[in-house]
Amino acid sequence: MSLILSAMLEAATVIGAGAAVPVAVPQEAVAVEGYEAQLQRGRALATSGDPAQREQALALYTAMLARSPDNSDVLLARGRTYSWMRRYPEAEADLKAVVERKPGYADGWSALGDMYLWSDRPADAVAAYTHWVELMPNDPAATMARGRAYRAANDVAAARADFAAAGVRGADATELERLLASLSPPIAVPDALVSGGYRWSLRAGLDHTGFNGSRSNWRDADVSLRRRFDGGSLALEWVQAHRFDRTTSGWALDGYAKLWSRAYANARYQHGPDGGILPRDAWRVELFQGVGHGWELSASIDHLRFSSNTEFYGIGIGRYVGNWYARYKLQHVPGVGSGSWSHRALVRNYYRGDADDYVEFSASTGRSTDLDRTGGLVRNNNAAFGVAWSHYFRPQWGFKIGAGYADDADGINEQRLWFSLYHRW
Predict the structure, then answer these.
(1) What is the pLDDT of residue 419?
(2) pLDDT at 90 > cutoff 90
(3) Alpha-carbon 122 to chain mean position
(4) pTM above 0.90, yes or no
(5) Contact at 8 Å (CB) between 348 and 319?
(6) At what angle do helices 51-67 and 35-46 cross, to 10 degrees?
(7) Helix, strand or coil for residue 210?
(8) Confidence check: pLDDT of 391 > 70
(9) 3-state DSSP call for residue 234?
(10) 192: which residues sit within 8 A by CB, 6+ positions away?
């Protein structure tokens, strides 16, 4: 009999033009095996990960429901399969029907919450998981699932409370440690090292600088496409600078790599045309190392090649306290006599407790290249100040806006405005 059912299931998928087209499983085929055997077969097909086999599972579940329309277990199984296939409207219809018929069915609320979370509806996921928690208050999986939904909704305090409660209820210690760590602001470069479940990100930015006196305005633009990997990330960037009534474009590769424990590195190479405003070649290497409780040390080398070479050597120290991060960096440029020095300070508050949303304040003095968004112009200021705001208004969409003022060493004051738009997937 099992051979007959296998043949019927194979016939349920018609192959044409390179695509699998599901057709209904005949009622005779469904009647061949018992209910439990049919359900187990459907689960095996649905969890295989193979799209064609999942189509077969859907066909089998649909045939079973035609014989028994009120069977919540089969409706739940079909709804989960739709979710795995990212057919979210169909999944929602099935799973909502399950919980409406059986409000005390914990697995139904669990599956509905998963579907909402996967389809970027974290508030709805929280509501569904809350029903699951109420039905099974001692199950750590329910509390951890709701904590993940709170995290996706950027409610870090509620997520932390749920993860802590799951620990009391016996959650796996390793998984719990990972989840709690995901709530902490990442070290120094939130966009470059932490994926948040996303593999790609795109940034487009504009920068306007105005001056007193007769100097014309500067306009800069940059576009960056970044791919994240388990051990870091790599970005391809295009930059353009319009300064002194001239325009120069260049491209760059910017990479971050995790190294040993609590250490990572940033390496960047940028190339521009000969005789342009931007350097012909510029590269940077910076190493970060976490030490003690919340401290971070760094060392960097920047090299710019115009008609001659310019190098910057820097050391920095950072400190995390709660949702606050502060950093000081000292840079030295070798030259005549003892060369020149610059000082930079930054204070950042992750006001929502995640890596995406923060307000930062910066101040600097001296000769530096770090202040330049296009990665290759030396700025020499008596004093410079800036403020910026980063915010994600949707899980996949965010922006950063900033303003600054600088008292240039050559006696010209500048006022800066910049804006970047972020998208990730």
Answers:
(1) 95
(2) yes
(3) 15
(4) no
(5) no
(6) 150
(7) strand
(8) yes
(9) strand
(10) 226, 232, 233, 235, 254, 256, 266
The two structure tokens encoding residue 285 = 């290497």
One-character DSSP codes across 79-102: HHHHHHTT-HHHHHHHHHHHHHH-
Determine how many CB atoms are found less than 10 A away from the CB of residue 156: 20
Look up residue 388 and give its amino acid. A
CATH of region 2-182? 1.25.40.10
Distance CA 66, CA 60 (A): 10
Q: Distance (Å, rounded) from C-alpha 422 to C-alpha 398?
A: 5
What is the percentage of the chain residues whose pLDDT exceeds 70? 84
Q: What average pLDDT score do residues 373-398 get? A: 78
How far is the C-alpha of 284 from the C-alpha of 254, rounded, in Å? 9
Reported confidence tier of residue 367, pLDDT bands at 50, 70, 90: low
How far is the C-alpha of 105 from the C-alpha of 277, rounded, in Å? 66
Give the pLDDT score at 193: 67
Parts of the chain belonging to CATH 2.40.160.40: 194-424
| CATH number assigned to the domain covering 194-424 | 2.40.160.40
- Report the SS3 class of residue 107: helix
Is 60 exceeded by the pLDDT of residue 185?
A: no
Six-digit token pair at 63? 């045939």
> CA 320, CA 297: separation in Å to the nearest integer?
12
Across 68-160, the runs of DSSP E, i.e. the strands, are: none
Q: What is the DSSP string of 266-334?
A: EEEEEE--TTSSS-SEEEEEEEEEEETTTEEEEEEEEEEESSSEEEEEEEEEEEEETTEEEEEEEEEE-
